[in-house]
Specification:
Number of strands: 13
Largest sheet: 7 strands, parallel
Order of helices and strands: EHEEHHEEHHEHEEHEEHEHEHEHHH
Number of helices: 13
Mean pLDDT: 92
Shape: globular
Radius of gyration: 20 Å
Oligomer: single chain
Number of domains: 2
CATH topology of the largest domain: Rossmann fold
């Protein structure tokens, strides 16, 4: 079976967990593959086809990011003969980043990462909200199969988009256990939060909770990682930003941190929770979205709108370090990219059979 995977909308460094998913999925499919794959990539992210044959689409001269870039890249793909000829031969085409570009009359699989634009529309401007309703919602409704990252997303997608539950398949993300693993590093009085400064990441309340902790623990530091953190400047006392860091550096931070704090107001999955657990780092996390589903009983959960509860959860995670370390290692071990890839292959086969 010939499977196409379109990463045309990938903009390196801009997509957070969905970019990690797309790149890790490709690598895992190259290891476990039972189908023939071709990855369609934009020139700026041609390395994303890592391990699989690819067709490259030239980057457009205008539209560096956002909906405009997606539209101009789609037009460039339509003019690329190699794309057209490959698409005609695919048995199924998968859109890991949701947006259905290039188009096809063949069976399609769409990964829907969340329905945040419907659950929390206030976090999106009018143009982006409209784009998601057109591109994301239509893609999910017309797909032969929809992949979602958690039962939480499945429930919201079925309800909000009125999808046929039989077409919606839960396949969780995973982590790279070769990178996120135990190692001998000295703990530091440091709380870690890896997240881009999107509104739902809840940095403002975290800063309030951290300030309360510093009243009795002035030695504590709050370390932030992720792209775009300059938008949070000036940072409160005791808070520092490292910007985007390599996975190996992030793993070291997890191993040295007193705890990971993950106060997000909304998540379709929540990769940092598992990454931290795999490194032996205690986790204090929000009870919102899919986070409780991912964390299981291996984290201290709190209401992300309650600053006092957030502060107390961080203290409790540090106090229960040994217990949470053991529970977290067991929880994180359940999630591997190879298993995620195998389950994707099952969905590809089902999509073709459904439309046969």
């Amino acid at each position: 079976m010939r499977v196409g995977i379109s990463l045309l909308t990938l903009s390196p460094g801009d997509a957070g967990g969905s970019e990690t998913y797309a790149r890790q999925l490709i690598r895992a499919l190259a290891r476990v593959k039972t189908h023939d794959y071709v990855v369609i990539v934009p020139a700026r992210a041609k390395d994303a086809a890592d391990g699989l044959p690819s067709v490259e689409v030239r980057d457009p001269a205008v539209g560096k990011r956002g909906p405009l870039r997606i539209v101009t890249t789609a037009l460039a793909a339509r003019r690329t003969k190699a794309v057209s000829s490959q698409v005609a031969e695919f048995d199924v085409l998968h859109y890991p980043l949701t947006v259905p570009s290039p188009g096809t009359q063949r069976p399609t699989v769409v990964t829907l990462h969340d329905t945040q634009h419907r659950d929390m529309p206030e976090f999106f401007g009018p143009a982006r909200r409209s784009f998601r309703r057109i591109a994301y919602d239509r893609a999910a409704r017309s797909a032969s199969a929809v992949l979602v990252t958690s039962e939480f997303v499945r429930e919201r997608a079925v309800e909000l988009l009125e999808l046929d539950p039989a077409r919606v398949h839960v396949v969780p993300h995973a982590i790279d256990h070769a990178v996120f693993t135990l190692a001998d590093e000295e703990p530091e009085p440091m709380i870690l939060y890896p997240a881009r400064p999107w509104p739902h990441k809840n940095h403002t309340r975290l800063f309030e909770a951290f300030a309360r902790l510093r009243e009795t623990r002035p030695q504590l530091r709050l370390v932030l990682t992720g792209g775009g953190l300059d938008r949070l400047a000036p940072l409160p006392e005791g808070v520092e930003s490292l910007g985007s860091v390599e996975p190996e550096h992030l793993a070291s931070l997890y191993r040295r941190a007193a705890c990971l704090v993950f106060p997000s107001l909304y998540e379709g999955f929540g990769l940092p929770v598992l990454e931290a657990m795999a490194c032996g780092c205690p986790v204090a996390a929000s009870n919102a979205g899919a986070i409780p589903e991912v964390a299981g009983d291996a984290a201290v959960l709190f209401d992300p709108t309650d600053v006092d509860a957030m502060a107390e959860a961080m203290l409790e995670a540090d106090r229960r370090r040994d217990e949470l370390r053991s529970l977290g290692l067991t929880q994180a071990a359940k999630y591997t990219w190879d298993e995620t890839a195998r389950r994707h292959e099952d969905v590809y086969r089902g999509a073709v059979a459904r439309d046969a």
